[in-house]
UniProtKB/TrEMBL annotation:
<keyword id="KW-1003">Cell membrane</keyword>
<keyword id="KW-1133">Transmembrane helix</keyword>
<dbReference type="InterPro" id="IPR010232">
    <property type="entry name" value="UbiB"/>
</dbReference>
<dbReference type="GO" id="GO:0010795">
    <property type="term" value="P:regulation of ubiquinone biosynthetic process"/>
</dbReference>
<dbReference type="InterPro" id="IPR011009">
    <property type="entry name" value="Kinase-like_dom_sf"/>
</dbReference>
<feature type="transmembrane region" description="Helical">
    <location>
        <begin position="501"/>
        <end position="522"/>
    </location>
</feature>
<keyword id="KW-0547">Nucleotide-binding</keyword>
<feature type="domain" description="ABC1 atypical kinase-like">
    <location>
        <begin position="89"/>
        <end position="337"/>
    </location>
</feature>
<keyword id="KW-0067">ATP-binding</keyword>
<dbReference type="InterPro" id="IPR045308">
    <property type="entry name" value="UbiB_bact"/>
</dbReference>
<dbReference type="GO" id="GO:0006744">
    <property type="term" value="P:ubiquinone biosynthetic process"/>
</dbReference>
<feature type="transmembrane region" description="Helical">
    <location>
        <begin position="534"/>
        <end position="551"/>
    </location>
</feature>
<dbReference type="GO" id="GO:0005524">
    <property type="term" value="F:ATP binding"/>
</dbReference>
<protein>
    <recommendedName>
        <fullName>Probable protein kinase UbiB</fullName>
        <ecNumber>2.7.-.-</ecNumber>
    </recommendedName>
</protein>
<dbReference type="Pfam" id="PF03109">
    <property type="entry name" value="ABC1"/>
</dbReference>
<dbReference type="InterPro" id="IPR050154">
    <property type="entry name" value="UbiB_kinase"/>
</dbReference>
<comment type="similarity">
    <text>Belongs to the protein kinase superfamily. ADCK protein kinase family.</text>
</comment>
Amino acid sequence: MTVLFRLITIFRVFARYRLDQLLPNQPRSWRARLALLPFKLFPTPKMNAGERLRRSCEDLGPVFVKFGQLLSTRPDLVPGDIVLELNHLQDNVAPFDKHLFKALVEKALEAPVETLFASFEEDPLASASIAQVHGAVLKNGQPVVIKIIRPGIEKTIADDMQLLALVARLVEKHTQDGRRLRPVEIVRDYRNTIFDELDLQREASNASQLRRNFATSTSLYIPEIFWDYCRKNILVMERIYGIPVTDIAALEAQQTNMKRLAERGVEIFFTQVFEHNFFHADMHPGNIFVSREHPQLPQYIAVDMAIVGSLTREDQYYLARNLLAMFRRDYLQVAELHIQSGWVPADTHIGELESAIRSVCEPIFEKPLRDISFGHVLLNLFQTARRFNMEVQPQLILLQKTLLNIEGMGRQLYPDLNLWETAHPYLERWIEKRFHPMTLWKELQRYAPEWLEKFPQVPHMVFDSLQQSRELGGVIPELQRLREQLDDNQRNQQRQSRRNVIALLAFSGAAILAWPGLHGTLAPWVGNLSWSELPGSVYLLLGIGAGALLLRK
């Protein structure tokens, strides 16, 4: 009954905000039309489509808030105006009881709070859809934050995921655009993402990796993780006191170099993607702060590393070359790279793909470079490729969303940010470095132990391959002889069929000539030939003999 009541609640909220109007085309199935009929009893709210979807997620609680955030990461499937509205979803959830929070900490760490921490703040610093955060101080005087997963959230998520999966299947089955929007795939991706976020040890390991990657950097700071206090449902990390990146007034008050700050954001992104191949994939403004130190050489501080991304070496290479080719307006190379990378099928007509890419990109490049959105160019490129059956590349969509966040944040900090001017030389250097002899030497050093370990097996593998080839070589002549025999049989059957037809004609002709009525009719056509006067039985015997002779051959 609980699931039924929850389903009724979801249906009522969807109807109140008339989410049925978000479907591009009305469903054709009578069942779907009947299910959507109650929606028409509600007036259409005076809001745009994106705001209605955002508010419905907020009304339905944490799971739907996170789902709305996930939808905002899929601009390949969701219209741009809705994506912009969903980006405004904030983790503004009512906190759960502070005494329960304390009890959960003590249960996870198996000790009283008073023995674990020098001080503990009972009022939360932040309350999100998945977790809640409180401040504390370790016994050694280190300020920290304690993050705890909301109690009972796993069951809530599991129940809501079942309902979301049901709705997705109905939409995909009974609406015209269901297959194109792929709601089942979106819900499946969301399930994986949200259950990953429930594991705070995973988030802690992500933070540790990022901190190690930027250990010597003056551009990005990652807070320290205190592993002795981390469990699957609890995370303790260094407390930071930076300025929220959206607080422009505070940044300007300390005379922050906004141009340098914006450029450093771009550099951090490309360093994570191409140098480290491990990028923070949830860099929305709520997770980014700016250090109060060295405002002329500003440093970012990042938190909440639950979602990270990485690319294969092939995707790294093809993505970099795609971006450079777009910058040079070499659309043929962009099309070739899409095919070479496997992003579109190998049988794609390269000329048509090149033309489609040109028609999308050329109007954009007529603008000044500082007015061109790098992220939207990439978005348009992927949307165009989808017309040619490009498979959705989750890692590229995640990267694209991160780039859109970084670029949007950079332009907010410094409106004249020229992302191309920053990115182009970086990509050129990366391509050059990738094929530098020193890089190749490092690759050799990295994989040499593995190659040496496998080298003794090489002679055996070569011998086995030769043996298999020899055995296969003995089979091939037999297959060839069998093929020739089959061809001979087929030719014999064809000849026999032709003889059968001719024999049939001989029998038929003899029978016709043996028929007295026709014999008299045909006699004028043969003139005075003596054989035309022969009895019909003679013609019949001659026809039978000719037919038999043909069949014998």
